Amino acid sequence: MYARLIKPPARSSFFLFGPRGTGKSSWVKARYPNAPYLDLLDAEVFTDLLASPARMGRYFTCTGPPATVVIDEIQKVPALLDEVHRLVETTGTRFVMTGSSGRKLRRAGVNLLAGRALTLNLHPLTARELGKDFDLPRALLHGMLPAAVRHEQPAKFLKSYVHTYLREEIMQEGLARRLPAFSRFLEAASFSQASVLNVSAVAQDCGVPRKTVEEYLRVLDDLMIGVRLAPFTRRAKRRVVAHPKFYFFDGGVYRALRPRGPLDSQAEIDGAALETLVLQELRALNSYLDLDYALHYWRTPDGREVDFVLYGERGIKAIEVTRSSRFRPADIRGLEAFLADYPAAEAFFLYAGNRRLKEGKVQVLPLPAFFESASELLMGNATIR
To answer: Where in the chain are all domains bearing CATH 3.40.50.300?
Structure first.
């Protein structure tokens, strides 16, 4: 198992959220090998604690309260949080709680222990975590879920992952009767990958009302498998597009959901997958390194665009991505327009070539250079290795 960048608190209880398959269970088992482990995906444990959360103490095999208890998939029994709260207050027990959905917790009205537990997130693997094992062509095809990285047949694994997710996660969210419609929605949404989201068009494509699509999008948000980037509008000097861009959280999952026909453009699919891979790296490092950037995109009505804008106390970073192996000055017109409005920003153009260039204020970087040193870029080093 690869060493993950996530840094848990030394003593405090915490929640570890992330989509199914990002490695939460494997990580907590490796990190806390001697802790009592309550797996709510185990039908017997789930049924027992659902009937009476107070029975949780029966699963602690030591005579006194253990230092740490792990509860896997806490959202399946939200009422357990009351018992967790009580034990944190009365015995000092530390709880590590994983989850792949915040929907049930919010629906149950729980307060996530009123600030007594931190909230962390686990993402798909990053290039930094993989180190020398990072394979850019493979990552573009199959994404960065740990099992996809290791699997001998990653495409088959991802198809199974999507099917399992539909059957288990979506049905548990109360959508079983609408599973065919939700399946059509997922396929329709995949055509919006790395694009400005047109909810009405998605609704028309999958044959459901607009309000239903909005509900389905909230489910994707709750299950952490959908990502929406808001447009960057701070102190805008010109009119910009107002709708968010949409992504599935992992490029491999996107490809597994995306139907392909004889008229589909491979370049279009590959371009969306590459943009997704860069977004995955940015989101994960931003979270793990506590950089606190807000992630946006920027686009004007006349089509000038910057794929990613990172805004925070460390400044503004604008990043444009292309799968082309050639750089042309026309490729950075969007970045130049953004710099005209935000001259203090740092601008980066990532491409599939192998030369590092400087075009005005824009750093032109080969994709491997970005993935090798993305953390340095985000932490404020204007020139990366």
So the answer is: 13-122
Start-to-end CA distance of the chain, whole Å, equals: 27
Per-residue model confidence as pLDDT tens digits over 153-197: 999 999 999 988 877 777 776 665 677 888 889 999 999 999 999
pLDDT value of position 188 = 92
* Cα angle for residues 55, 61, 66 (degrees, 5° grid): 90
Q: In this structure, what token pair is assigned to residue 18? A: 């992330």
**And the tokens for 289?**
């390194």
Pairing mode, strands 37-39 and 195-196: unpaired
CATH fit for domain 13-122, picks 3.40.50.300, 3.90.400.10, 1.10.472.90, 3.40.720.10: 3.40.50.300
Instruction: Give helix then strand counts, H and E, for the chain.
Output: 15, 14
At 22, the pLDDT band (50, 70, 90 cuts) reads very high
Closest Cα to residue 353, out of 383, 320, 323? 323
Give the CA distances from residue 238 to residues 40, 62, 302, 319, 337, in Å, rounded to whole numbers and listed in that order.
Answer: 51, 64, 11, 19, 10
Please give the backbone phi and psi of residue 195, each rounded to the nearest 5 degrees, phi first. Answer: -125, 160
- Alpha-carbon distance 163 to 234, whole Å? 40
CB 222 within 8 A of CB 101: yes
Please compute the mean of the pLDDT values over residues 306-319 and round it to a whole number: 96
- List b or e across 295-320, with b for residues whose CB sees 16 or more CB atoms inside 10 angstroms: bbbbbbeeebbbbbbbbeeeebbbbb
What is the rounded distance in angstroms from the CA atom of residue 255 to the CA atom of residue 199? 21
CA atoms of 84 and 92, how far apart (whole Å)? 10
Residue found by looking up tokens 């509008």 in the block: 233
Model pTM score = 0.92
pLDDT at residue number 75: 87
| Alpha-carbon 205 to chain mean position | 25
> What would the pLDDT profile of 225-269 be if each residue is shown by its tens digit?
999 999 998 876 677 777 999 999 999 999 999 988 766 778 889
